[in-house]
Amino acid sequence: MAKSLFGSIQRLGEDRYRVWWTQNGQRKSRVIHGTRDDAELFLATMRLSTSVVREENVPDQTWSHYYATAVRPTYVWLEPKTSFEYERIWTTELEHRIGNTMVSATSRNMAQAVLLDIQATSVQRAALRLWKKMCYMAVGDGLLNRCPINRSIKLKPHVGRKKHMLDANEALDYLQAIQSIKYRRVFRLMLGGGLSVEESCVVTAEDVRPWEYRGRNYALVQVDKGLVTVNGQKHLKGTKNGFREREMIIGEPFATPILMDLPEEGPLCPSKIKYKTDGEWTELNYTSPTTITHNWRDWCKAHDVNYIRPGDMRTIWSTWQGEAGSPDSLISMAMGHAGATTRDRNYLESTRRSLVLLADNLTELIEDADEIYS
How far is the C-alpha of 293 from the C-alpha of 228, rounded, in Å? Predict the structure, then answer.
């Protein structure tokens, strides 16, 4: 069960979450149909509704007024990147379309027309998510009888971006090709351990240590934080959820380069600022994911290296594990996912033995692939 700032959330299945919160000293729960963000927002709404005194028979109001007085105040409990994206979607896409509309006048047909008027499919879906959250809040405040944005809403077909992949037989050559770039330490963690770029760029030398098991060498990596860029500013934060805070075991051919290339202390991917603040490493000391992605593309072009989007390196690790025959449940836990089944969420724990299994499977896959193509 994942912790929330406002209660607890348990994933029951696709688009279904059970939430728990405390109200008037009593433990309450409810099933929310939607995304995890919907469940989080419901809990935030309950916290807001129980922490302030509301007048009965709240008069109808426009969406602009409701956003400013009820929705925006809940952003103080959200991550900076999430609140920034919500504010951007409202300002650029929704405010001029629905701002002057009365909340009670919102219908499914109206919502359908407004969303289809948005051109970019990804932005269209982001607008739907935000507006749906706002509607749930309006239902809780008595301004709507039910949420008009439901499964019957039709959106433009979304064409997924083609991902940059790397075959297992290319892994050794790729590690050799990238060893001169200053971001190499981050990429080794992503390709060898399935870490995200937000997690990898804040790993420090203190988070990595050597480990030997049954005559094999491994790198143990502690994953407990992440870095995001919001409106040009870096924000150091915790992982997305409790599952993402984890220990990762990385085997060969990645372990030795990782361990041999550690700095004496501090970030594996440092920024230009080398000093600590109050004895701690802060967001000022790390290179942001945005900078890494931008410079990495230019570096690959200049050095004639196959460009792989940093976000796709986590996908490559997962794909390799699937090719190696690793169990899906262990792959999910190693990546910090909550899991899709009750067993995964409540009755399965990530152990060093399971992580060694994944590391060894990947080692053998790369060795076998290299032999097959040699």
Answer: 12
